[in-house]
Recover the amino acids of this structure.
């Protein structure tokens, strides 16, 4: 395996959600590299209907951040507090993840840059998402490669109309995620996942997958 291929796999295997971000400014050139990675992704029919809103405005972030925190306090935190640890993780790691999620809810408006991937269309669908989320993943990997922390969140969609109005989106344009970006507090990866044998099947549902 070449060094380039090894580096790519290392990036993928260490691109975890970085929810604790420093407020330090991020050079525009790095954000441009992330956006270029996004538009390098495939889209249905190569139509490239994606649009990316880059938010640096403190007042917009403060307004949207308040809705985000409300969604965390009223919806997500109560649900997670009554849930078992995520698959493949320990109660201690799950608790640390919740602490990081709480930090993001409290400080998301302080992240220096947000990217909001959006698309035109009456209502978001799974097929529409297939033309935007590959771009999102490219941007997350690019941020990791550049030493920047980022995470994909859709929690704000609990207040979709209010947030999209605050973002100034046209009525026929909808956001699909919010990606806060900044220099991370803490280290990258490795990601922790359940074994392949628990999630991959061969030919028929439930039939164990084997490499040969």
């Amino acid at each position: 395996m070449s060094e380039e291929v090894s580096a790519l796999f290392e990036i993928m295997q260490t691109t975890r959600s970085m929810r604790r971000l420093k407020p330090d400014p991020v050079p525009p050139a790095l954000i441009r590299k992330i956006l270029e990675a996004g538009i390098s992704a495939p889209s249905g029919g190569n139509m490239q209907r994606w649009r990316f809103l880059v938010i640096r405005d403190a007042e917009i972030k403060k307004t949207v951040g308040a809705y985000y925190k409300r969604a965390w306090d009223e919806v997500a935190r109560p649900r997670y507090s009554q849930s078992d640890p995520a698959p493949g993780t320990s109660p201690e790691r799950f608790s640390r993840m919740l602490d990081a999620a709480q930090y993001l809810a409290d400080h998301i408006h302080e992240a220096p840059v947000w990217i909001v991937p959006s698309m035109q269309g009456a209502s978001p669908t799974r097929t529409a998402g297939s033309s935007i989320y590959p771009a999102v993943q490219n941007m997350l990997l690019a941020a990791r490669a550049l030493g920047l922390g980022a995470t994909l969140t859709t929690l704000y969609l609990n207040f979709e109309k209010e947030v999209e109005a605050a973002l100034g989106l046209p009525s026929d344009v909808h956001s699909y995620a919010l990606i806060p970006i900044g220099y991370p507090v803490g280290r990258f990866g490795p990601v922790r996942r359940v074994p392949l044998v628990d999630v991959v099947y061969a030919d028929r549902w439930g039939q164990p997958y084997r490499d040969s």
Summary: The domain at 3-186+193-198 is CATH 3.40.109.10 (NADH Oxidase). The chain has a mean pLDDT of 93. The beta strands are 50-55, 113-120, 149-150, 173-175, 179-182. The chain is about 40% helix and 10% strand.
